[in-house]
Amino acid sequence: MILPLHKTGMALLPLTGPRGDKMKRMSKTYHCAVMAVGAVALFASSNASAQNNESFSQNTVKIGILTDMSGIFADLAGSGSVAAAQMAIDDFKEQSKPTFKIELISTDHLNKADIGASRAREWYDVQHVDMITDVINSGVALAVAKVAQDKNKLVMVTGAGTTRLHNEDCNRNTIHYGWDTRTFANGHVRAQAEQGRRSWYLVAVDYALGRSLEQDATEAIKANGGTVVGTVKHPISASDFSSFMLQAQSSGAQVIGLANAGSDLVNAVKAGNEYGITKQQQLSALVASIIDVHAMGLNVTQGMVIVEDFYWNLDDRTRAWSRRFFSSQKKMPNFVHAATYSSVLTYLKAVQVAGTDAPADVVKQMKKVTINDVFTSNGKIRADNKMVHDVYVMEVKKPGESKVPWDYYHVRRTLPGSEASQPLSASKCSMVKQPA
Question: Model pTM?
Answer without folding.
Answer: 0.85
